User: What shape does this take?
Amino acid sequence: MTKWSLRGRWAVVVVVTVVAVAAGVVTIAWVQRIASPWPEMAGTPYEIPLGSDGCPVIEERHQFVDAPGPLVPPGATEVLLCTTPKALHNQRPGVADPPHQRVLRAGAADFAALLNQLPNRNEAWRQWQRRHSGWWPDAAPEPMGEACLLVGYSHEHSFVLRYPNRQPVPLIYTCGGQAGGLTSGTRTRMDCTKPHLVDEFLTRLQQQ
Assistant: This one.
């Protein structure tokens, strides 16, 4: 075996090793990019009180809270949509308010099932990566659902699910409006893709 053939083999070994190490580093970095960036358990559960009108009382923004499991119990017989005007709406004279309360009865159980299909924030982030990232996944932003954009909403939307054999379950949007984090005070799921749940509710209401 000549000196050049030995050098050639060593060169091949070095190149293969470098490529394997580089591929390993890239693979590890890629896996870290798509891994769940936030813990499944977060925050301290709290109760969302109901007012005398049966709608959720939205007193303040709470710490983000989440846990594994369904957002709401199955088998709802009614879903109440509450719509409350905010100060911004009062600055727009001539714009009529939608009804404060609307009730979905036909298909209420299906709407509850739809709520339970909402992704948690880790799943929502992975869905966003698949839709919008290129070949290299984007890094996770600030914890999803914990930081609210400074957006002025004209109305506050919330839901109440009613059951024949258990207490009602109120749901509020963590940042107001009609999209984003939707929480029961125990779990939070992300209503980030269109049609948003308020729009879906109104469509089903027209069909009942």
User: Anything to note?
Assistant: The chain has five helices and six strands. The helical segments are 3-34, 87-90, 108-115, 121-132, 197-207. The longest strand covers residues 78-85.
